[in-house]
């Protein structure tokens, strides 16, 4: 078992001489290597981390430390803190990122390591990246910070999940901007500055939860629509007097440059300011809200889409693409589009899931691709001690396609992830891989 665990270390010994030395010494003494014990002690500390570090208010941790010292063992705090950063990073990289908010409570050093770029580089090298869900909520009462970002994390001392506020400065994402995700970054695009349309693009690094400026758009936009295809961000609409030379532009995230697409004018799609867009089947699909028509960008020209897809998308409240399949939510069902049969098919299994609160009929629902699974978020009102409260529920659904072309949903988990007396509303639900 020791050799198997040791084999999981993908770094070469010369890169981690400290870890190799400790592993060798513990193996010679017939003990387990430190990775398992370090992780268990780290989780122990995380569970105790909500207590004050002062001994008088941290009696449980002090009692454990005293008992281990009496038995001739090093207290967990001392043994873990003596490890070098490279060993701790190697251990932390093997833990689900859902645990990082709790582990950050252990100490300032743990908090620094959990937000370091080195940790995420280590996760990538070890092949331990995972999909992380970010949710943007809108407050109608807090004018200082009307929109806040949250990440789905594990609740301390529990397997349940909860939305945790992102520890960053005021979000630049306002009510007139759009947001998309590329790699580990969330882009907030356009919006209003002093009541004027903006060319601003801000980026949140989901490793460190810090915002930075990206190159500005060439055209100022308010209420634009943005989508991602092959690492490029397509932004359309939201500008004055839209025409074929200004209504759509593309940002290459690799070269960090903008380009205005010179596309032949199609009056049915170009003469509008409000759009919905999505990258699907290798093409950018755009739907005009005003004209109620959908087109796809194919080889530099606009092409009409299938009429059933156009009509079905128009009736959707929320939509997403998972494994190149287009899903929509209506007030009656969750459906997926079959491009070969040119019709919408129901996602089977959801109405029969026992215990899952119904979200059908709810207009405040968001769908998102969360690592190949579907996440459904919806708003729900309740009363606690005669006070009305707003709750947000979340369900994660695994998707299985059968040979008869049907797709079934299997419930993985669900629960209440956010509750507040403030009237928060769902704005964005995006998943990034880090």
What's a quick, concise take on this entry?
This protein has 11 helices and 26 strands. The chain has 434 residues and is an alpha+beta fold.
How is the topology of this model organized?
Blueprint (H helix, E strand, L loop, with lengths): L1 H6 L9 H12 L5 H15 L10 H12 L5 H6 L3 H8 L7 H4 L4 H7 L2 H9 L5 E9 L7 E8 L6 E5 L12 E5 L2 E5 L2 E2 L2 E2 L3 E5 L4 E4 L11 E5 L2 E5 L11 E5 L4 E4 L6 H4 L4 E6 L2 E6 L4 E6 L2 E4 L2 H8 L3 E5 L2 E5 L4 E5 L4 E4 L18 E6 L2 E12 L2 E15 L5 E14 L3 E10 L1
Antiparallel strand pairs: 1-2, 1-26, 2-3, 4-5, 5-8, 6-7, 8-9, 10-11, 11-12, 12-13, 14-15, 15-16, 16-17, 18-19, 19-20, 20-21, 22-23, 23-24, 24-25
Q: How would you describe this structure to a colleague?
A:
The protein is α+β, with helices and mostly antiparallel strands and 434 residues long. It contains eleven helices and 26 strands. The protein has helices at residues 2-7, 17-28, 34-48, 59-70, 76-81, 85-92, 100-103, 108-114, 117-125, 267-270, 307-314, and strands at 131-139, 147-154, 161-165, 178-182, 185-189, 192-193, 196-197, 201-205, 210-213, 225-229, 232-236, 248-252, 257-260, 275-280, 283-288, 293-298, 301-304, 318-322, 325-329, 334-338, 343-346, 365-370, 373-384, 387-401, 407-420, 424-433. The strands form seven sheets. The protein has a four-stranded antiparallel beta sheet with strand order 3-2-1-26. 21% of the residues lie in helices and 37% in strands. It has three domains: 2-125, no CATH class; 130-168 and 310-434, no CATH class; 172-305, Kelch-type beta propeller (Neuraminidase), CATH 2.120.10.80.
């Amino acid at each position: 078992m020791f050799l198997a665990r040791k084999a999981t270390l993908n770094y070469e010994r010369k890169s981690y001489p400290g870890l190799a030395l400790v592993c060798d010494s513990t193996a010679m003494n017939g003990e387990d290597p430190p990775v398992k014990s370090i992780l268990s002690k780290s989780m122990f500390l995380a569970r105790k981390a909500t207590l004050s570090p002062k001994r008088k208010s941290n009696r449980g941790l002090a009692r454990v430390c005293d008992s281990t010292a009496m038995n001739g063992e090093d207290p967990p705090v001392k043994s873990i803190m003596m490890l070098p950063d490279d060993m701790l990073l190697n251990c932390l990289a093997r833990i689900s990122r859902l645990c990082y908010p709790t582990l950050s409570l252990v100490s300032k050093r743990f908090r620094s390591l959990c937000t370091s770029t080195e940790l995420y580089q280590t996760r990538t090298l070890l092949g331990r990246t995972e999909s992380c869900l970010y949710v943007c909520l809108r407050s109608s009462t807090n004018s200082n910070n009307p929109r806040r970002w949250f990440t789905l994390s594990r609740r301390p001392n529990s397997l349940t999940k909860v939305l945790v506020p992102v520890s960053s400065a005021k979000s630049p994402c306002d009510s007139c901007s759009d947001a998309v995700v590329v790699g580990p970054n969330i882009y907030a695009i356009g919006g209003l500055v002093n009541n004027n349309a903006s060319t601003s693009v801000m980026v949140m690094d989901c490793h460190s939860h810090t915002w930075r400026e990206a190159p500005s758009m060439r055209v100022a936009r308010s209420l634009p629509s943005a989508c991602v295809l092959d690492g490029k961000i397509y932004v359309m609409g939201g500008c004055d007097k839209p025409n074929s030379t200004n209504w759509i532009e593309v940002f290459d995230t690799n070269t960090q440059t903008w380009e205005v697409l010179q596309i032949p004018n199609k009056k049915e799609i170009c003469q509008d300011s409000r759009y919905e867009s999505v990258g699907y089947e290798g093409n950018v699909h755009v739907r005009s809200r005003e004209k109620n028509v959908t087109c796809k960008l194919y080889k530099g020209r606009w092409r009409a889409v299938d009429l059933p897809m156009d009509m079905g998308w128009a009736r959707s409240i929320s939509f997403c693409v998972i494994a190149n399949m287009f899903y929509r939510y209506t007030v009656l069902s969750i459906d997926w589009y079959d491009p070969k049969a040119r019709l919408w098919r129901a996602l089977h299994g959801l109405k029969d899931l026992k215990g899952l609160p119904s979200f059908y009929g709810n207009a405040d629902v968001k769908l998102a691709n969360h690592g190949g699974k579907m996440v459904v978020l919806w708003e729900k009102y309740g009363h606690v001690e005669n006070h009305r409260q707003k709750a947000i529920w979340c369900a994660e659904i695994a998707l299985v396609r059968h040979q008869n072309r049907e797709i079934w949903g299997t419930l993985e988990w669900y629960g209440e992830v956010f509750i507040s007396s403030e009237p928060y509303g769902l704005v964005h639900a995006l998943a990034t891989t880090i």
